[in-house]
Amino acid sequence: MGKVSKGVKCSVIGCNEPAVKSIAAQRIPSSMKVEASGRRVYLCEKHYKEFKKLTKKERMVEKWRYAGV
To answer: Do residues 8 and 23 lie in contact, with contact meaning Cβ atoms separated by under 8 Å?
Structure first.
């Protein structure tokens, strides 16, 4: 049973909503202000959507990188 299902809060500073996803702390862009207390960062639905928008180009490049293999 993971921490998200146990009811951990969002790691973004000033947000107290329950988290729906956990992301590796090193993947979080510097524009998102989070308090990382370990290797994982927990995001609520609103901030996860923002994370996806911020990293869209990076994910697309990674997809292209491994598409020809």
So the answer is: no
